[in-house]
Design goal:
This protein is an all-alpha fold. The chain folds into 5 domains: about 1-75; about 85-210, Voltage-gated potassium channels. Chain C (Four Helix Bundle (Hemerythrin (Met), subunit A)); about 240-355, no CATH class; about 425-595, Up-down Bundle (Four Helix Bundle (Hemerythrin (Met), subunit A)); about 605-715, Helix Hairpins (Orthogonal Bundle). It has helices spanning about 1-15, 25-35, 40-75, 85-90, 90-110, 120-125, 125-130, 130-160, 170-180, 215-225, 225-250, 315-325, 330-345, 350-365, 365-390, 395-410, 425-435, 435-455, 465-495, 500-520, 530-540, 550-560, 580, 595-605, 610-635, 655-665, 670-680, 685-715; strands spanning about 260, 295-300. A two-stranded antiparallel ribbon has the order 1-2. It is globular and about 95 Å long. It starts with a helix and ends in a 9-residue tail after the last helix.
Length: about 725
Amino acid sequence: MMELADQERWAAEQDLQSPKGWSYKDLAEDSNASLASGSQMQRTHSNFSAISRATSVATSLISRTHSTFLQKHKKFGLKRKSLWDKIVENPWFNRLVLAIIMANCVFLAIANPQCDTEVEIANNPECAGNPKWQRIIDANYFFTAAFSIEVVVQAIAKNFIIGPNAYLKNGWSWLDFITTLTSYTPYLPGNATDVSSLRAFRALRPLRTLSAHPGIRLLVSTLISAIPLLLDVVLLLTWVFFVFGIIGMQLFMGRLLGRCHPLNTSTLQPEAVPENMTDQVCNPVQSSGTYNCGDGYVCLNGDYEAFYGDVSFDNIGRALLQVLQVVSLESWSTTQMYYLLDGIGNVVFIYYFCLIVIGTYFALNLLVAVISAKFAQLHVDSQKAILARDRAAPNMSANVRFYIEFLVSMLLKREDLVPWAEQSYPRRVARRIVDDPWFNRFVMSIVLVNIVIMALYHADMSDGFADALETTNLVLTILFTIEMVIKHAALGILGYWSNGFNALDGIIVIASLVDLGLQYSGITTFTPTVKCTFTLTLTFTLVNVLDSIIVIASLVELGLQNSGTSNSHGGGGVSSLRVLRLLRVLRSLKLLRQVEGLNKIVNVVLKSMVALRDFMLLLLLFIFIFMVLGIQLFGGNSYYTPANTATWRKGFASFYESFYTLFEALTGESWTGNIWNSMAAVGPAACLFWIAWDIIGHKILLNLFLAILINNFQDQEVGPQLF
């Protein structure tokens, strides 16, 4: 009761301290009067006056609330924070830690696990001759010391073990503690080879950056909250894997040993098999669908391996790997089923049909359903929290937001503020032209003609045909320029460039005019300085999402030019100006506005860009983590050398090679080949790395991407159209 009385007394004091003559009613009357006024200047002045008054009162209210909060702290005598608490809670402390983590990530990316200590450098001739590795070791000393200091400060401020907020009662703190502890493994006495693999834990350190981005935190929260349901799906998948693995063992164990031998063969040694048939499986007992060796050959069982020994159901471990490959739909027919068809017969197809239907199309797709449901639930919960916060906020905040939103709408739609009768005659004429349906149909027709003309280019064109296409392009560029001028006259500069499609049209028209100007002036190439300036200018001036395509195209063109490509009508490369001409293809995007379904899809995708940006950051973070893990586990291994064609461009010798190796596996392309290569390089346990990457990257993160798109399609009726 005393607390309620204190609150009522404080509220009465705030009413007495409110500015004299102010009330919410006054602000509402100001708003209504400004909207009803016929004069544009009076309306704008009234709204700015109302905004100023609202802002002043809001500032006063915040100031008094802050003062009262401090008084309450003094009244109840809250405990003063210690120096360690102040350090830990200081935002600059967290920023410094994140900066050190980012710097450490750079050194992790360029590190070589074979040159990680002074002893390894001394024993490895390739490391001893390069001072870079010693500088990396010196940097590791600094990072180890910095993270150790951070752990000590956090443990002192929060207590290490005892207490409700103890340091080790937080999961992220455990991760920090373990990664910091394993950083000391290179400095243990002796060789310490038994614990050197623990250095791979350092790759988990970038996970701490997740807390610095709220959008990524939402995605991670989605995955964490989905863990209970995901465990149920994982148990179902585990059951499917073991059932089909055991069935495969019972049906296919030892059934891939048959090879075709000449009739005069007196030995079952591999050299007796013809060279072109060493990997051809057959069955000594002919049945429907098996391979027939032909005249002069006989099928005999021997100690042979199918597909370099990678295809085998001889034990449960190998059988589970075969099932995983089939469920992921990666080369399952050419690397498994065809061998078994040759060795057993057509009955093999029934096994693979059931496995794919049950394992892939049913059980595996449950991951998509679970992640989508959890993401949608968290999205709804966050929207409810925002609504509850807005309802609980003072009415003053609603009034301030109303005036600010009204002012923004005035700035974005300035042409609507001027009455039709007060607009100039040329602008009214231009507006009638732009609003006429036949004008839009004419523009769409020349867009279609532009697409046809671009499609008519081909290699080895005659000069006459090429000149005809260039003349047509000149006429189309003039027509598009006229369209841009008319729209500028009708909408104004701000009204034109505030629309996404109009901005894209304007950029393409300007690029086309630059192309024509340089072409007729005799300039056919850009210097690297001009190309870099052009690219940077677009990067810093274009803020529309679609305009980023132009920047990417410029960067691609710059790379092609620097690689020494040339251009003629006959092909052979990309010229310095051809990228400007390729932008004309983007005019076809204007057709999307005429097709309602496509327009809706484009708007959903564009509204998803913010969430997709967070997803891309999360995806890149996990790619980087697995890159560092791969470098620590497989980097420097002699199996991954250019001389080994099986592993060429599929290793972890460098940052770039690691990146595209993981990205290739993320897309599901030949990722099982990486399993066999890594197992041949370091042992059977290496398959766990690729299985973890397939589950996290391909099965979970990419399904999270689908969940984002599905959620945005469900909310497609909410919010304004972007185009």
